[in-house]
Amino acid sequence: MNQVARVPELRVVISVEQLQKRVRELARQISDDYQGRTVHTLAMLENGFMFMADLVRAMDVPVICQFIKPQYRRHLEGKPEGFLEIFFSHDADIRGQHVLLVEGIIHSGVTTEFLVSDLLGRGAASVKVVTLLDRQTARRVPFQPDYFGFLVDDGFLVGYGLSSAAQTERNLAFIGSLG
What we know:
Elements: H1 3-6, E1 10-14, H2 16-33, E2 39-44, H3 49-58, E3 63-68, E4 71-75, E5 83-87, E6 98-106, H4 110-121, E7 126-134, E8 147-151, E9 157-158, E10 175-178
Parallel strand pairs: 2-3, 2-6, 6-7, 7-8
Antiparallel strand pairs: 1-10, 4-5, 9-10
Helix pairs in contact: 2-3
């Protein structure tokens, strides 16, 4: 069955060909920037796993692949909005290492900014961020990734690792918009 036909309300936003071309371009740029060094790629689950797989296969430098999954807890403490606490487990020793944080999409930038700070605090020699999709209009902090694939606007995107609440569109080979 055709992947687009599987989800009738789906509109293709970024095609398979566009994704493959841009991932190769990013891999070349990152490889040039990390020439002579090993890159510790740290993919943010779940949205970043497919992007990382294609990205590291196209890179020409030594790569160590690892994954993290942030957990969130909202504390209200008498305020309507409260505050958000971010947790993640990362057991690998990154002291003195060059870390590339890989994201499928950056929205507010809050989690990414937190992770970059945390990784530097754990002694990483450097931390750079690559995201496939950058939704700058949703930023709540002044964060800019070091590398990005595509700027996207509002709209719910699925495919190529991104998913809806039903978790069924991650395996689409393209990026689509629902609705």
